[in-house]
Amino acid sequence: MCDQHKFVFEFDKAFNHQLIEKFEASPAHTLSEDVAPPKTGVYALYWKGRLVYAGKALKTTLKGRLADHARKIRRRQRIELQEVTCRFLEIEGSWFVRAAEDALITHYSPAWNLSGFGGHDPGSGRPGIRPRKWDQDFPLRPDYLGPKRVRRLPPKR
């Protein structure tokens, strides 16, 4: 008997195909702090028309995550916020959000996903830690002071 009569539904291929189709049909918006709703889902950032970053909003919201990115870009050199657009899809369910992010990254291979753009790097700025590529390509603006760090002294005994 030949294998040509066997059918195995490939859920991941069907999901990925539908997701990419829906994503590409969604409208692009200029990135801003209030561009998206307070919902979970996936998004992509485009710089000068090229998809450069794909991410998810799962433990936060699309609104919060895209606002974080807008603030990050606003305080950088060699890039202007008005050059950046975004697309997003609201998705419910943690498995579906994670699968959708993976589908976007696999399909588009965005350059900034491996550059350190989206990470919340707790080691950033410590001695011996090399600056991430994104930080080298887009250094902080000289007029940006950044968060104030307060050194805590141990309590007196």
Molecular structure report:
The longest helix is centred in the N-terminal third of the chain and has 15 residues, at 11-25. The protein is built from 4 helices and 4 strands; from the N terminus they run H-E-E-E-H-E-H-H. It has a domain at 27-118 and 131-137: GIY-YIG endonuclease, CATH 3.40.1440.10. With 157 residues, the protein is α+β, with helices and mostly antiparallel strands. It has a 4-stranded antiparallel sheet, sandwiched between helices. A hairpin with a 2-residue loop joins strand 2 and strand 3. The mean pLDDT is 90.
Output the CATH topology of the domain at 27-118 and 131-137: GIY-YIG endonuclease
The end-to-end distance, rounded to whole angstroms, is: 83 Å
Mean pLDDT: 90
Low-confidence stretches at least 5 residues in length (pLDDT < 50)? none
Question: How are the elements arranged and paired?
Answer:
Blueprint lengths: L10 H15 L3 E2 L10 E7 L2 E8 L4 H13 L9 E7 L3 H15 L24 H5 L20
Antiparallel strand pairs: 1-4, 2-3, 2-4
Helix pairs in contact: 1-3
Features:
157 residues; alpha+beta; GIY-YIG endonuclease; 4-stranded antiparallel sheet; 4 helices
Task: Sum this structure up briefly.
This protein is of the alpha+beta class and 157 residues long. It has 4 helices and 4 strands; from the N terminus they run αβββαβαα. The chain has a domain of 99 residues: 3-Layer(aba) Sandwich (GIY-YIG endonuclease), CATH 3.40.1440.10.
